[in-house]
């Protein structure tokens, strides 16, 4: 029996932005035949399919109306027709998932080969260098284990934090014991990520051995995507795997530059898993669709808000993000975190939200502190009037209530960035309340996606991670995907 499903393509798959489009299935399928007829009133279409690739790829050209049928069959034999989900349209010019996967490399391709694996081991550490959330390390394990089992020599590269030059507190050394434990092999550590000593350590690596390089961001050339630095990294290995989804939105030497000098350059299993889930969930979300944005990376995330306003029905802002908005409205923000050069942008975003009919909710009250410390004195104050010398470190009880009520109306929620400095118990209530709310809504069938190192750590801390629909290892990366942006770390990989 041929497992086959006929999908009628209707007009409404295309939406208003149909100049170019891509159809993507929520699970891998193989196209067995396709027939698409342009509406007679419209310009001819261009369509391209790439069977037997898991993703159906049809490009539309200037074609707002389309009628036709696509026949497809599950790509993996263990999937039955029942698991073939809906087909989504999303207006990305290119498909992110059409990339070669590490799974396509077999033992014969990998045995004895030096594989440069970019992972995102940017995990939170406490003052004593204990890992406070190992989610990103655990997420990196399947790809590394696969390479070990295939007899490859595994060279792991990552960044940690945002060091300025060599700063011991950003060393990756404290991660070695946990990594070794999870991989069940003794992971060797290099003191550098390039240079003679590293070359020697790589040459001593046996098949199935693992070497962790020191923080690639100890070199400013990493973030500058310096070609000479990328060449030096690439010279350590024979092939490249990028499994660092959390850093895929950065065009850095170890995520993008190296792909010019190392072939094949393929996606790891985590990268694949994240893209498979997120592209499907955020490209065609169940509505109403809400985004919650907080945290401290204000300058990175404030830019994302503009694009989010095109996609979401509701936008909740918390964390360090909000004070730039309050200051822009002329309110007193005390010594709270503010990005002075983003004040105009904040004003523009509030106007844009209004014009688009998107509910942009800012907290009405905050928990203010007299210093940035766990033992600070604290009090709840209106968000629009923070006394001099005080700083807002969490959202207040009224805000928790109004945010919770607003979220009750939604069907899809993406959350990036904690509501407050949750690392200090006194300022963790807002983040914890939102985590609990999302867990409650997940149980009622709402799709809940949590992205970002610290956001995931916060959800893990309250023991609710397994209640969410998807825990993503990338905050900024998942937001950029949601914006419809291409991720440079993915784009640079070999096409399947
Ligand atoms: N009001 C605030 N002022 C300063 N820092 C904050 C505030 N609220 C949250 N933070 C901090 O933001 C950090 C996380 O931000 P970010 O890196 O943007 O999130 P993620 O890692 O989830 O993407 C946390 O360490 C938290 O303490
Ligand atoms: O923690 C990360 O991003 P995230 O906080 O947006 O999830 C990634 O490791 C990327 O780090 P970067 O934002 O310093 O480039």
Automatic annotation (TrEMBL):
Cofactor(s) recorded in Swiss-Prot or TrEMBL: Mg(2+)
The keyword Magnesium is assigned to this record: yes
Catalytic activity: (2R)-3-phosphoglycerate + ATP = (2R)-3-phospho-glyceroyl phosphate + ADP
Subcellular location: Cytoplasm
Enzyme nomenclature, EC number: 2.7.2.3
Coiled-coil regions listed: none
GO biological process terms, semicolon-separated: gluconeogenesis; glycolytic process
SUPFAM superfamilies linked to this entry: Phosphoglycerate kinase
GO molecular function: ADP binding; ATP binding; phosphoglycerate kinase activity
Highest taxon above the source species: Eukaryota
Top EC class for this record: transferase
Coarse class of the protein's main subcellular location: cytoplasm
Family of this protein: Belongs to the phosphoglycerate kinase family.
PANTHER family according to UniProt: PHOSPHOGLYCERATE KINASE, PHOSPHOGLYCERATE KINASE 3, CYTOSOLIC
Protein name (Swiss-Prot/TrEMBL): Phosphoglycerate kinase
């Amino acid at each position: 029996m041929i497992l086959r499903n006929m999908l009628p393509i209707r007009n409404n798959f295309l939406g208003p932005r149909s100049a170019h489009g891509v159809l993507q299935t929520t699970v891998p399928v193989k196209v067995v035949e396709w027939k698409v007829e342009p509406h007679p009133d419209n310009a001819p279409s261009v369509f391209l399919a790439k069977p037997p690739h898991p993703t159906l790829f049809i490009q539309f050209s200037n074609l707002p109306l389309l009628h036709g049928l696509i026949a497809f069959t599950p790509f993996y034999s263990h999937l039955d027709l029942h698991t073939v989900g809906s087909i989504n349209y999303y207006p990305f010019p290119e498909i992110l998932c059409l990339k070669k996967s590490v799974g396509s490399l077999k033992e014969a391709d990998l045995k004895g080969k030096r594989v440069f694996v970019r992972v995102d081991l940017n995990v939170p550490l406490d003052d004593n260098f204990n890992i406070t959330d190992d989610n990103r390390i655990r997420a990196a394990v399947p790809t590394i284990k696969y390479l070990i089992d295939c007899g490859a020599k595994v060279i792991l590269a990552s960044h940690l934090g945002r060091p300025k030059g060599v700063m011991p507190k950003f060393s990756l050394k404290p991660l070695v014991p946990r990594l070794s434990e999870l991989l069940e092999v003794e992971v060797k550590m290099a003191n550098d990520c390039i240079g003679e000593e590293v070359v020697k350590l790589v040459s001593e690596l046996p098949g199935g051995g693992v070497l962790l390089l020191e923080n690639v961001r100890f070199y400013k050339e990493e973030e500058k995507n310096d070609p000479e630095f990328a060449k030096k990294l690439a010279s350590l290995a024979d092939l490249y795997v990028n499994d660092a989804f959390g850093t895929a939105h950065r065009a850095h030497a170890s995520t993008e530059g190296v792909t010019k000098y190392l072939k094949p350059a393929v996606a790891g299993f985590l990268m694949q898993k994240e893209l498979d889930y997120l592209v499907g969930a955020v490209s065609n979300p169940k509505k109403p669709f809400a985004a919650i944005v907080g945290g401290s990376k204000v300058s990175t995330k404030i830019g994302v808000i503009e694009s989010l306003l095109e996609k979401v029905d509701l936008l909740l802002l918390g964390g360090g993000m909000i004070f730039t908005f309050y200051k822009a409205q002329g309110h007193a923000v005390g010594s709270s975190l503010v990005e002075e050069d983003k004040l105009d942008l904040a004003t523009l975003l509030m106007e844009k939200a209004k014009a688009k009919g998107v509910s942009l909710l800012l907290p009405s009250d905050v928990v203010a502190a007299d210093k940035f410390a766990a033992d600070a004195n604290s009090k709840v104050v209106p968000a629009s009037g923070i006394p001099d010398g005080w700083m807002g470190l969490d959202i207040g009880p009224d805000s928790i209530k109004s945010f919770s009520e607003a979220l009750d109306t939604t069907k899809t929620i993406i959350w990036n960035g904690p509501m407050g400095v949750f690392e200090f118990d006194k300022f963790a209530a807002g983040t914890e309340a939102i985590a609990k709310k999302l867990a409650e809504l997940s149980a009622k069938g709402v799709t809940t996606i949590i992205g970002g190192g610290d956001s995931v750590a916060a959800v893990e801390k309250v023991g609710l991670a397994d209640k969410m629909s998807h825990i993503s290892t990338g905050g900024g990366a998942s937001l950029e995907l949601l914006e419809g942006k291409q991720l440079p770390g993915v784009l640079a990989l070999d096409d399947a």
